[in-house]
Design a protein that fits this description.
Strand order of the largest sheet: 6-7-8-3-9-10-12-11
Radius of gyration: 20 Å
Bound molecules: adenosine-5'-triphosphate
Order of helices and strands: EEEHEEHEHHHHHEHEHEEHHHEE
Helix content: 25-40%
CATH topology: Rossmann fold
Main location: membrane
Number of strands: 12
Shape: globular
GO molecular function: ATP binding; ATP hydrolysis activity
CATH architecture: 3-Layer(aba) Sandwich
Membrane topology: Peripheral membrane protein
Protein name: ABC transporter ATP-binding protein
Family: Belongs to the ABC transporter superfamily.
Distance between the termini: 34 Å
């Protein structure tokens, strides 16, 4: 089976006055239809840049140094604007941390959702829906995200809704084009803990019911574990470990993953946030030689400063980039 999304040796630099930030350093990921992949790592390790690059909305000055991204057999890096319009928001849609930023404060939810519904019809060259049809479609979309008081919500302005409701509305908008892939970038981070759990339940339900393919980004391992069957751990622009979520959580092999999980106070029942292990993410203009994690690594030896570890398979669907993964 061909993967729905394939990312191969993807390197991205962002030029700055002080030199190029080597933000993504050879990312390899693959995602099948119907899969749920979590990307976890500390703040600043490149998760958002990676996710946005999949949608062609990466940093404006970002330069692909090597590698490729292929979605549904389409080479994304070769797309022109017309090509992107057929994919972005249609085949791949994205939800973000702060829904308020993506909702227009001046228009009601009903108006904004209707606009999205109409825009999708137009993009597909289909007949534009009547007012009544738009309303029916909005109703169905809000129902899909478990919003039951339809009448109140469609006539509300974004500020009249709670954060959780706004996130549900954004998810409804993201689903309007029946996307093949949904990218969720920290979708629960800005919400209260109880609301976080509700939104995670909703995403879980959508995955189960619609067979949605999801890439979910979070620094919250609990949130990732709730949604994602597979997980990729990122450190300083590198995927250091990936595999089935259950294996990674119970048998982490990379010292960074081990550090992240050890720093979790108690994963049971709650969605604990990662506490970073000692040290900080390195400067990405002059990243450490060899393994980017070596300055913080309790197991680092000479080879780690000299050679970048090659990602290797150490079990069924468990890949680690560490010289000492099996020590
Ligand atoms: N447009 C930009 N210009 C310059 N640097 C950028 C730009 N966008 C991202 N970066 C830098 O790239 C690195 C990775 O950022 P990114 O936002 O992807 O991290 P992240 O893992 O998603 O973190 P967070 O969880 O805080 O969002 C950071 O050092 C960030 O400062």
């Amino acid at each position: 089976m061909t993967a729905l999304l394939t990312i191969q040796d993807y390197r991205l630099d962002i030029p700055t006055f002080d030199g190029a930030l080597k933000v993504l350093d050879g990312i390899d990921l693959a995602l099948d239809q119907g899969e749920t992949l979590g990307i976890v790592g500390e703040s600043g390790c490149g998760k958002t840049v990676l996710a946005r690059s999949i949608l062609g909305i990466g940093p404006a000055k970002g330069k692909r140094v090597s590698g490729s991204m292929t979605f549904d057999s389409v080479e994304l890096d070769h797309l022109d604007e017309a090509g992107w319009r057929r994919i972005r928001g249609v085949k791949i849609s994205m939800i973000f941390q702060d829904p308020m930023t993506y909702l227009n404060p001046l228009f009601t939810i009903g108006r904004q959702l209707s606009d999205v519904v109409v825009a999708h019809k137009r993009a597909k060259g289909e007949r534009l829906p009547s007012r009544a049809e738009q309303r029916k479609r909005c109703h169905a979309l809000l129902d899909q995200v478990q919003i039951r008081d339809f009448e109140r919500v469609v006539d509300s302005y974004p500020h009249q809704l709670s954060g959780g409701m706004r996130q549900r509305v954004l998810i409804a908008m993201a689903l309007a084009g029946e996307p093949q892939l949904l990218i969720a970038d920290e979708p629960t981070t800005a919400l209260d803990v109880t609301i976080q759990a509700q939104i995670l339940d909703l995403l879980r339900d959508l995955v189960d019911r619609l067979g949605l393919t999801v890439v979910m980004i979070s620094h919250d391992v609990g949130a990732i574990a709730a949604i994602a069957r597979r997980v990729a751990v990122m450190y300083a622009g590198v995927v250091v470990e990936q595999g089935m979520t259950n294996d990674i959580l119970t048998q982490p092999r990379h010292p960074y993953t081990q550090g992240l999980l050890a720093a979790l106070p108690d994963i049971e029942g709650g969605h604990q946030v990662l506490e970073s292990i000692p040290g900080t993410i390195p400067n990405l203009i002059h990243p450490p030689s060899g393994c980017r994690f070596h300055p913080r690594c309790p197991r680092a030896t000479e080879i780690c400063t000299a050679q970048k570890p090659v990602a290797r398979n150490i079990g069924a669907d468990h890949v680690v980039a560490c010289h000492h993964a099996l020590d």
